[in-house]
Amino acid sequence: MPNLKLEWREAARADLLSIVDYISDDNPDAAQKLKDDIEEKTSKLVEHPRLYKAGRLPGTREMLVRRNYIVVYAEDARQVTILRVLHAAQLWPR
Hints:
There is one protein chain. By secondary structure, the protein is α+β, with helices and mostly antiparallel strands. The longest helix is centred in the middle third of the chain and has 16 residues, at 28-43. The termini are far apart. Helix 1 packs antiparallel against helix 2 (28-43). Helices cover 33% and strands 29% of the residues. Strands 1-5-4-3-2 form a 5-stranded mixed sheet. 19% of the residues are buried.
């Protein structure tokens, strides 16, 4: 799948910014490092979109970034779409 495009959904960008904002209250350096890490790893999805496991929802995949952060994405013949960036605690029913 050469020349795939990477697209971030608005909800995924909002998720990422919210996580970074929350962490930066206590540790701005850690927040920036996490943001950089997520952006770097997602940028590589265009080369290897099927590297990560199938997601909980049909048609999605989930990339574990560190222990507590999961990037949910979908891929097709043209692009990889970042759907959400979630803290692992958001995935379990309360």
